[in-house]
Each structure stands twice: as structure tokens, then as C-alpha cells.
Write a structure and sequence with these properties.
By secondary structure, this protein is of the alpha+beta class. It has helices at about 5-20, 30-35, 40-60, 75-80, 85-100, 110-125, 130, 175-180, 195-220, 230-235, 305-310, 375-390, 390-395, and strands at about 70-75, 100-105, 145-150, 155, 160, 165-170, 240-245, 260-265, 270-275, 280-285, 290, 300-305, 320-325, 330-340. Helix 1 crosses helix 3 (about 40-60), helix 6 (about 110-125) crosses helix 9 and helix 9 (about 195-220) packs across helix 10. Bound molecules: 2-oxoglutaric acid.
């Protein structure tokens, strides 16, 4: 029997010891009794060598490199420290120009609140379909809120492998926007059998809205504008949309790459602030390459939407992203969309001091131009959401 130096080393170091056998030496190796005693160690060595090789191959052939999405500590922006805010703003600006995505830490959002949200969401999605359907989206009409099952939401015409809950600003029947039957405005649907869910979601949305204002101050400073520029013109009374998604584990996922949790798309508004659990699966198109944006403890992932692309004439591009849950378990995510006011007309900002890129319509996932669009943000967002739920759009919008 022949064996390589590597296998003899492994055999001597681990398996022989476990089997209480004396180590093989150069002298004893030639004896047939020693070879027999060590036969099972050799086969274990072979399996181990094979597994080692397989790991190396998987690594070499992995299609998506690990993340280079920058991580930015925004605590100086949160605390409004005048001598340090600009440095944070510059890091944000750099990330917006290179990736369109960045992680934030030092944001000050309560871990306890985040844990409550995650636990209650797990409980909600673990229920049977009939129970979840008690708050199905069709029941909220034009307010466009509630639960949708796996396969109901489409990206680029294809069903996404996710189920979810849609929420928005909680408005009562006397609110003038609700009286005027403005789409995407109204009351949320909350599960009657989970009494704490409502307040947790509302508290989380309030915290995210404050964080959205903070980040927009940083984005304004990064463009050489006064910190309150966006609040003064577009986001003082933002349209905020909040979603909770559950991407169930699909055994076929391993064979079929096309079972996207969410297909390639860009977000519609100015800024998305995403909380993801630790399953992974978010992929970001950075400078024409797909890279992973894996979970980073205590962070949120932020990305630019189409309206910031339009406002900056493409200086800050909205970045395509997608989700593939390969974690072998369900994945939860919590995107919060901090968007311009529904009625706002989005006009490009004067950025004569920077060199602007060409229109990217030809490369965009939806083949449209965010720069040539005419109308309010409400017109833009309604055009988009009606494509993701075409049946619901026919019935309620
Ligand atoms: O679930 C995620 O990680 C991302 C969700 C997303 O891309 C979206 O809602 O626009």
C-alpha cells in the first residue's frame, strides 16, 4: 500500500491517535500488519483529502466575491457634531459614487426594539396561510397594506420567492389624504392575534424615519448642499413605506439559480435602510459586478433609490440588487423606504461643480430612464408598485 506524505501526517496526527494505534514510522510502514491496522485510518484520510479538495474548488468557483461594501460609523451625524459631520458625509458621498450601497453603524437604533421586531415577525410568518391571510393586502384597498403570500409579488414580471407584510404611515379615516382616497395612504393591517405587533412596527417606523432624516442631512452635506436641503425641498414630510419579508427555504434552490427571493431591481425613492437577519443572500451590482452584502452585526444596509439618481442627474446612481436565499433556512429582512413627499415634483439639483455621467437607460433592469420621467413622486411610485402586484392593481387602484 502506498500513501502520500500528507496522508501519513493526517493519519498519524489525528485518526491513529483516536483509534489508539501507534504512529506509523518510516521503518514500521513497510510491515503488512501495520498497514492492516491502519486501513480504516487511510480511508478516513482519503475522505478528508477529498473534502479538502472540494472546499478549495468551491472557493475557486464561487460566482460572487465577498463584500467590499463600505461600513460607515455615522455617530457624529446622529449626534450632530459640527466638526465631525463633514467627514461622515464625505464617506457617504464616496460610497454613493462607488457602490450606491453602504453599511451604517453607530446609528443608535435600539437593539431591544430590533429584537422584538424580529421575534414577532418570526412568529407571524410561522402561522398557517389562512391565519396570515386574515390581513391580506386586498382588505386594505388603496392603502396598499397587509400580507401577501409567496409568489404574489413580481419583479420584472417573475414571481419572487418571498412572502411579506406591507406597512406605511398610520393614518386615520379623518386624514385629508385618506378622505381624498390618495393611493398608498391609510390605515395599516395588523394581526389581531398578536397584540404587541402593532406598537413594535410603529415604534420601529418612527425610529427609522428619524434615521432617514439624519442620513439625508449627511447626503446633502456630501453634495455640498446645506444639511437641511432635502428636508426643505423633498423629504420634510416623507412618504415612508416599510416591509417585512420572509424568504422561505426552498430545497430546489440549490439546483435552480433562478428561484430569486427578489429579482434584480433598483428602489424607487431616495434612500432605503435595510435590516437583515444573519442568513445572508443580498447581492449588489457594484461597478458591473455582483458582490455579496452579507450581514454585519449591529448595522443597517443603506442604498440609493431612483429619485436620488434623478435629483443628482446620475451622480449618485440607484444600484441594482437582488436576493437569493441559499442559507437552508428562512431569511427575514426589513426594508424601510424613506422617500420624497408623494406630491413632490422631483427636479434635478444644480450640481454644476461635478462631472455628470451619461443616462444609463440602456443598462437599467427596467429599460426606463429615471431622468426623462415626468410627474410627481406619487406618479412614479404608483407606476412601479402597480407592476409588482398586477392583480391587486386592477382591483383596488
Ligand atoms: O430583502 C432584502 O434584503 C432586500 C429587499 C429589497 O431589495 C427590496 O425590498 O427592495
Amino acid at each position: 500500500m502506498k500513501t502520500s506524505k500528507y496522508r501519513r501526517e493526517v493519519c498519524r496526527d489525528t485518526f491513529c491517535e483516536a483509534a489508539n494505534l501507534p504512529p506509523i514510522t518510516r521503518q514500521s510502514y513497510s510491515r503488512s500488519s501495520i498497514q492492516n491496522d491502519h486501513r480504516s485510518c487511510f480511508s478516513k484520510c482519503l475522505v478528508r483529502s477529498f473534502l479538502f479538495l472540494q472546499t478549495q474548488l468551491n472557493f475557486i468557483m464561487a460566482p460572487i466575491p465577498t463584500s467590499s461594501v463600505p461600513i460607515i460609523d455615522i455617530s457624529a451625524l446622529v449626534q450632530q457634531l459640527p466638526d465631525q459631520e463633514q467627514a461622515v458625509a464625505e464617506a457617504i458621498g464616496q460610497a454613493c459614487r462607488t457602490h450606491g450601497f453602504f453599511y451604517i453603524i453607530g446609528h443608535g437604533i435600539s437593539e431591544e426594539l430590533q429584537n422584538q421586531l424580529e421575534q414577532q415577525s418570526q412568529l407571524f410568518f410561522a402561522q398557517d396561510l389562512a391565519t396570515k391571510n386574515q390581513i391580506r393586502m386586498a382588505l386594505a384597498g388603496k392603502a396598499w397594506r397587509g400580507f401577501f403570500p409567496v409568489g404574489d409579488e413580481l419583479t420584472s414580471g417573475k414571481p419572487d420567492m418571498k412572502e411579506g407584510l406591507y406597512f406605511g404611515i398610520e393614518l386615520g379615516p379623518d386624514d385629508p389624504r385618506v378622505k381624498a382616497e390618495l393611493p398608498l395612504h391609510g390605515a395599516n393591517l395588523f394581526p389581531a392575534n398578536m397584540p404587541e405587533f402593532r406598537q413594535t412596527v410603529l415604534n420601529y417606523m418612527a425610529a427609522m424615519t428619524t434615521l432617514g432624516h439624519t442620513l439625508m442631512r449627511g447626503i446633502a452635506l456630501s453634495l455640498g448642499l446645506e444639511a437641511s436641503f432635502f428636508a426643505n425641498h423633498y423629504t420634510g414630510d416623507p412618504l415612508t413605506l416599510f416591509r417585512i419579508f420572509n424568504y422561505p427555504y426552498h430545497p430546489q434552490q440549490e439546483q435552480q439559480e433562478q428561484l430569486w427571493g427578489v429579482g434584480e431591481h433598483t428602489d424607487y425613492g431616495v434612500l432605503t435602510i435595510l435590516k437583515q437577519d444573519d442568513a445572508g443572500g443580498l447581492q449588489v451590482k457594484s461597478q458591473s459586478n455582483w458582490i455579496e452584502a452579507p450581514p454585519v452585526p449591529h448595522s443597517f444596509v443603506c442604498n440609493i433609490g431612483d429619485m436620488l439618481d434623478r435629483l443628482t442627474r446620475g451622480f449618485y446612481r440607484s444600484t441594482p440588487h437582488r436576493v437569493l436565499n441559499t442559507s437552508q433556512r428562512d431569511r427575514l429582512s426589513f426594508p424601510f423606504f424613506f422617500d420624497p413627499n408623494f406630491e413632490a415634483a422631483i427636479e434635478p439639483i444644480d450640481l454644476s461643480h461635478v462631472q455628470l455621467p451619461d443616462d444609463d437607460q440602456a443598462e437599467r433592469w427596467d429599460g426606463t430612464s429615471v431622468h426623462r420621467f415626468e410627474g410627481t413622486y406619487g406618479d412614479y411610485v404608483l407606476g412601479k408598485v402597480s407592476k409588482v402586484f398586477p392583480d391587486l392593481q386592477k382591483d383596488v387602484l
